[in-house]
Design goal:
The protein is built from six helices and six strands, in the order E-E-H-E-E-E-E-H-H-H-H-H. By secondary structure, it is α+β, with helices and mostly antiparallel strands. It folds into two domains: 86 residues, Roll (Ubiquitin-like (UB roll)), CATH 3.10.20; 93 residues, Orthogonal Bundle (Helix Hairpins), CATH 1.10.287. The strands form two sheets. The chain has a four-stranded mixed beta sheet, covered by helices on one side. Strands 3-4 form a two-stranded antiparallel sheet.
């Protein structure tokens, strides 16, 4: 987060600049808000997104009432020095209406198919927080870590068997079940998918 607030042109729009927020893992566009110099300075200091409310005329930290904060990974300044791009990891829905983004639950991004795993991770996190009665994810998490881990083991065995003796379609189905339940296990232990990816990257670099 090397943006220098002194290099941002806050003078073009009465002291405010638009701040586009993008999911650091999926590339999905989460929301658009505005920052003044103090909001940017607070964002850089806290490493959580702080904006300026045009309606309330004050600073506000995203998630200050809901807990759905935005953990900032990076802040970039555009070529005209009057727009900020915030890459962040959301803790829950980015929109106050409860959707994953302010543009609905379907991420708007030119993301690779693999990036959907991060989207699914966000959905699982929301289910864990909201605990809807009809949610399989919430029910499984409610049974405790041992049950979640057991389910991952079962899905791993079924995936291995499908790899040996079943069709490609069946292997894909069982692999999807395994990945889904692995994400639930990671959530139960509060281990982000990004940490797993970073571990893979570190091994690849050796």
């Amino acid at each position: 987060m090397s943006v220098d607030p002194g290099k941002v042109d806050f003078g073009k729009s009465d002291g405010l600049v638009p701040a586009i927020v993008q999911d650091a893992d999926t590339g999905a566009v989460l929301m658009l808000a505005y920052m003044n110099r103090e909001a940017l300075e607070q964002t850089l200091a806290r490493k959580r997104a702080v904006f300026f409310s045009r309606s309330k005329q004050r600073l506000w930290e995203k998630g200050e009432t809901t807990g759905h904060t935005l953990d900032v990974v990076d802040v970039a300044l555009d070529c005209d020095a009057d727009t900020l791009l915030i890459t962040a990891r959301p803790r829950g829905p980015a929109c106050h209406n409860g959707t994953l983004t302010c543009f609905g639950d379907e991420p708007r991004a030119a993301a690779t198919p693999i990036a959907f795993l991060a989207t699914l991770e966000s959905v699982i996190a929301q289910r864990a927080t909201d605990k809807p009665e009809a949610s399989y994810t919430a029910k499984l998490l409610g049974k405790g870590i041992n049950k979640v881990a057991q389910k991952v083991g079962e899905e791993g065995v079924e995936t291995a068997l499908a790899g040996v003796a079943e069709s490609d379609d069946k292997l894909a189905e069982e692999s999807a079940d395994l990945l889904f339940h692995l994400l639930i296990l990671l959530r139960a232990r509060n281990v982000p998918l990004a940490r797993v990816v970073e571990t893979l990257k570190a091994r690849h670099a050796k």
